[in-house]
Amino acid sequence: EAQLVESGGGLVQPGGSLRLSCAASGFTLSKYWMSWVRQAPGKGLEWVANIKQDGSEKYYVDSVKGRFTISRDNAKNSLYLQMNSLRVEDTAVYYCAREDIYYDSSGAIEYYLDHWGQGTLVTVSS
Amino acid sequence: AIQMTQSPSSLSASVGDRVTITCRASQGIRNDLGWYQQKPGRAPKVLIYAASSLQSGVPPRFSGSGSGTDFTLTISSLQPEDSASYYCLQDHIYPRTFGQGTKVEIK
To answer: How close is the nearest chain B Cα to the Cα of A74, in Å?
Structure first.
């Protein structure tokens, strides 16, 4: 069965950096788009970024563009999120998630998040 | 970015009740919408994708409908284990956006 395990969270000062990792097992990582989603304490879910199977396409929410970088190493079955210039508002639990495909009403390929990790907490505070 | 407006923000219902949660997109998104359930302290779990397709292993009391801008998640007969928060997510255009969530409580 597919499993995702995040690591790398912790306490960091504003302006600092942190690198999150997501270890994938039970499936072939290279066949799937992958996403990061975050949830601030007591708040809702926010999609952060995703990356294509070969790393050639990446998309980000505006609030992290230029500060966060998503990457992957399929040979190591791992997904990463490099977070720089961290802000207090980046404090959240960060989840990695696998994207499975479906065909929408127009026949276009679309994606949904079918497997999620348990999350890792990032706290940005002085 | 597409805004996803979810309602209600919370509800309280009895076991066996029919529960409906709605999500409205700020522009048409075809059927590019999923519904996710999250219990406290747990990761989200997909219930519905493509607006109306039931994810494998999800009980059939959950159903989804809608296309374009208006979508609905229905729980046909609420069970105690359905106490959770529910979120819609559009995957039509980047950035993907979630609704603000609906907290479902059991009376």
So the answer is: 23
Residue found by looking up tokens 């970015």 in the block: B1
Contact between A37 and A46 under an 8 Å Cβ cutoff? The reply is yes
Residue A2 CB contacts under 8 Å (≥ 6 apart), including other chains = A24, A25, A26, A27, A98, A114, A115
Residue B13 has pLDDT above 90, yes or no: yes
Minimal CA–CA distance to B70: which of B6, B9, B1, B2? B6
Amino acid identity at B62: F
What are the pLDDT digits (tens) for A51-81? 999 999 999 999 999 999 999 999 999 999 9
The closest of B45, B54, B2 to B23, measured between CA atoms, is B2
The answer to whether the Cβ–Cβ distance between B36 and A113 falls below 8 Å is yes
A5 touches chain B (CB under 8 A): no
Contact B89 A61 (CB under 8 A): no
With vertex at residue A19, the alpha carbon angle to CA A73 and CA A75, rounded to the nearest 5 degrees, is 10
Task: Report the mean per-residue pLDDT for chain A.
Answer: 97
Tokens of A104: 């929408």
* Inter-residue contact A17 to A67 (CB < 8 Å): no
Residue B27, token pair as written in the block: 């522009």
> Would strands B97-98 and A58-60 be described as parallel, antiparallel, or unpaired?
unpaired
- Across the interface, do A45 and B31 touch by the CB < 8 Å criterion? no
Residue contact B44–A95, C-beta within 8 A: yes
Q: How far is CA B41 from CA A26, A30, B28, in A?
A: 24, 29, 33
With a cut of 90, say whether residue A23 has pLDDT above it.
yes
